[in-house]
Design a protein that fits this description.
alpha/beta, two-stranded antiparallel sheet, Rossmann fold, 10 strands, 190 residues
Length: 190
């Protein structure tokens, strides 16, 4: 299973473009709403940084109740945007999921400001990674630069302008470069 977290203030295109592409590739992606820090409201409705509200597949509490060592993860996806990335960073549910993913070798995927969540937890040490300009100092231990980078089980991207490429790179990693190419062609992407 692939988990895509949506926290209040997420960058809509960075979440929805990869989600659409991954589902076109036949991958099982579950969106999980993350509550804003300090709130007790557990809802599946999450509003992005540009005022677009998305209904996630699961609430945070429903997902947290299912999360355990027997939970099978292929990848975890963190969209950027602010304060979305900060809200992901503050979530214990996101932290526990990343720990499980890292322990089991699942892909850790983050775009824009969200690689800071991986960097602050040491997942980028000795890796090549990228992020939105200005967040590089939070990618602790990483060599930074580029638009979309895959280094081992880490996939990072610079921002909204490369959200499709981010999605294609995840498909290449989880299915095949050929499948990513098929979808690229089908949607008339350059």
């Amino acid at each position: 299973m692939i988990i895509l977290f949506l926290a209040p203030g997420f960058e809509e295109v960075e979440a929805l473009a990869p989600l659409d592409l991954l589902r076109r590739a036949g991958l099982e992606v579950v969106t999980v709403a993350i509550n804003a820090p300090g709130t007790w409201e557990d809802t599946a409705a999450v509003t992005g940084t540009h005022g677009i509200t998305v209904l996630a597949d699961m609430t945070e509490s429903d997902f947290a109740a299912r999360l355990g060592d027997d939970f099978s993860l292929e990848a975890v996806i963190l969209p950027g945007g602010m304060p979305g990335a900060s809200n992901l960073d503050a979530s214990s549910t996101v932290e526990k999921t990343l720990e499980l993913a890292a322990r089991t070798g699942a892909y850790l995927c983050a775009i824009c400001a969200a690689p800071l969540v991986l960097g602050k937890r040491g997942y980028l040490i000795g890796k090549r990674a990228t992020c939105y300009p200005g967040f590089e100092m939070l990618l602790e231990g990483a060599t930074t630069g580029g638009k979309v980078i895959r280094d081992g089980n880490i996939i990072t991207a610079a921002g909204m302008g490369v959200a499709q490429e981010f999605g294609f790179e995840i498909i290449s990693a989880l299915v095949s470069p050929e499948k990513a190419g098929e979808i690229r062609s089908a949607i008339q992407s350059m």
